[in-house]
Each structure stands twice: as C-alpha cells, then as structure tokens.
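Bumping with the actual sequence this time:
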Amino acid sequence: MPLITLVLLPFAASLLAAFLPANARNTESTLAGLVALVCAIQVAWLFPDIAAGGILRQEVQWLPSLGLDLVFRLDGFSWMFSMLVLGIGALVVLYARYYMSPSDPVPRFFSFFLAFMGAMMGVVLSGNLIQIAFFWELTSLFSFLLIGYWHHRKDAQRGARMALTVTGAGGLCLLAGVLVLGRIVGSYDLDVVLASGHIVHTHPLYTLALVLILLGAFTKSAQFPFHFWLPNAMAAPTPVSAYLH
C-alpha cells in the first residue's frame, strides 16, 4: 500500500460515512474501525524496513511546472506516531460505538472523526514543510467540528470557537515559521531540512523561525500561556476528548 493511501483512505471513508443512514451505527463504527485497523496493519507490516534504519519515501507529482510535488515519508519517528494515531483511533471508535446516544447524528460524528484521523496521518507522513503546515491546519478545522459536534449547546459552541481561534492562529505562526525555515535552507523538503542543521543554527533568521514554530506547537498542545482553550474543549463528546487530547 503506497504511503499516500494511508492518508487518503481515512478521508475517503469520511466522505462515505457522511452519506450513510442516520441509524447505521454499526456500519459507521465498523467502517471507521476497519479503516484504522487496515492502515495500522499496513504500517506494522513496514516495521522490518524501518527497524533496519530505512526511510520509505514516495513522491507524487502535483504541479510539476511550479516544482510542487506531494512528498510522503516514513521513518522510525513517524512510524511510531502512525501506530499511535491508528491504534488509539481504533480503540476510540470502539468506545464511541457504545458511547454515542441513539439520538446523536452518528454519520456526522464518524465523518469528522475519520477526517481528523486523515489530517493527523498527513502531518505524520508529510515529507514537505508546506504539506505539514497544510495538514496541521486541517487538524484545527476538524477538531473545531468535533468539539462543536453538539452545536445546540452553548458551551460546545464556545469551546469550538476558542479552540479554532487559538490553534488556527498558532497554525499561521507555524506556516510563517516553515516559510522562514525553507528560505534559510533553500528547500521545503524535510530530508533536506534535516540534513541542514548546521546551516539553520548559524543563520540570522534561526531565532525567528524557532519562535514561530514553537508558537504553533505550544498553541496546538495547549501549553502555558495558551492552555485556556483546552478545558472549554471538553464540552465535546468524551470520545472526541480522548482522541484529540
């Protein structure tokens, strides 16, 4: 299975889940669980190559005239986080199957859930800084939709807006940071950036890039002083809180 499939499959399942009947609770949860398990098995299957020190890489032409390609890579670090995203995702799907009320619009829940899973896999597997920033912002968008799932409740509306404002602004800082980092290195390819540490550390723009990227990370992970949005986000259904946070 190509690496891009590990990102696209949750998004494709998200679209399918959105159009299933409202009473298809078992079908929805089975679909989401199978997607997580199939992707997890595929990632686990690649472990021997990763354990041997290999780095798997896939490039997909997007806009060759502009020199823009989609790049996906899997090393030991991204392998570990892929297994966490997919393994915990499968467990949360099982929990959500029995947690959600029969009156809840289950198709919308699992559609947003699978889209969030795909966005996280995009962050983990991207081999291009611009791609990482793009999928990073997608996680903010879909977490907003999940936190505000019970949109008839004022606390859910407030928590969703606050989460989107803080993490979305942090995502813009991250984008600015990776643009500066790409300017320093002369490339947005992650492998090139990782091999250019000595260039980055001695560049006058290093501190600016570091601060901007840290702002993105601190806002997303609710670190002080950006922690205030997280308690409000607990207005989401418990499976959402379990997966997002």
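The tokens above came from a reply further down the thread. The chain has a mean pLDDT of 91.
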